[in-house]
Write a structure and sequence with these properties.
- This protein has about 150 residues and is an alpha/beta fold.
- The chain is globular.
- The chain is built from 6 helices and 6 strands, in the order αβααβββββααα.
- Strand 2 and strand 3 form a beta hairpin.
Length: about 150
């Protein structure tokens, strides 16, 4: 499942105005919960928050990939948040996060989950891709960029 295009469409992309990590996580989870594969938004938000408390999912370069595997998720769901202003995710490189990709996956879907995380990491580490995402004019363009 290396094709992110199958997992992401423009309805799962949002542009964030605030600079709060908590607000960004909440909004990403709310968007994921619109998908019927996510049966418990509260559980997902709690899991994502707990993961952030253990260690920030900011991987540097202005990227964060909050993620969780849960019984209440039936299939992988990906949502994307773009913040032109940047969000403080306590990244190890101290840079604000501009691109956030939430990955919610079923508890028993480890292999597919790891492939999606690896693919996201490869795609998002490309400077041109990150710059294109941050400056995308709309959600359709974000989905196209990540789906390639």
């Amino acid at each position: 499942m290396d094709d992110l295009g199958e997992l992401l469409d423009s309805r799962r992309v949002l542009f964030l105005d605030g600079d709060s990590k908590e607000d960004a996580l909440r909004r990403l989870v709310e968007m994921a919960a619109l998908d019927p594969h996510v049966r418990d938004a509260d559980e997902l938000l709690t899991a994502v928050r707990e993961r952030e408390e253990v260690m920030s999912t900011a991987i540097g370069l202005g990227i964060a990939v909050p993620h969780a595997r849960l019984r209440s998720v039936d299939d992988i769901v990906v949502t994307v948040g773009i913040s032109r202003r940047g969000v403080d995710f306590q990244a190890f490189d101290q840079r604000p996060v501009h691109v956030m990709v939430l990955v919610a996956a079923p508890e028993n879907g480890h292999a597919a989950y790891m492939r999606v995380l690896a693919r996201l990491s490869r795609v998002l580490k490309d400077d041109a891709v990150r710059d294109s995402l941050i400056h995308a004019r709309d959600a359709e363009q974000v989905a196209r960029i990540l789906g390639t």
